[in-house]
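Troubleshooting log. The previous structure file for this entry was overwritten by mistake, so regenerating from the original sequence record. Sequence copied from the archived sheet and checked twice against the printout by T.R.
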Amino acid sequence: QDHVVESGGGSVQAGGSLRLSCAGSQYARCWYSMNWDRQAPGKERESVAGFGDDGMRTYSDAVKGRFVISLDPSADTVYLQMNNLKPEDTGMYFCKCISTNWGPGTQVTVSS
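Regenerated output below.
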């Protein structure tokens, strides 16, 4: 079954940056449509960013202006550049492409 793997998480101080990667297996088709979600401890999972078959990027209000999706179609990998990170961005970040289930996630921790 096609799958994705997230990477790039880590621990940073507030104001710092991280770049997450979502790498798809052979037929994941991340280049076509995908989503990023996150879940903070004790909170519900929320949608962060994504794009559909029209290619239009969408971002939640919480991250708009700070996070940017980019794409490497040749590697079927999608990146989430996260700038000006805040403690409330802390959580597990998951990605899903059109042909896959959600990946195992990568942890992001932002300290104040």
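Residues 18 and 82 are 5 Å apart (CA to CA). Archived copy saved in two places this time.
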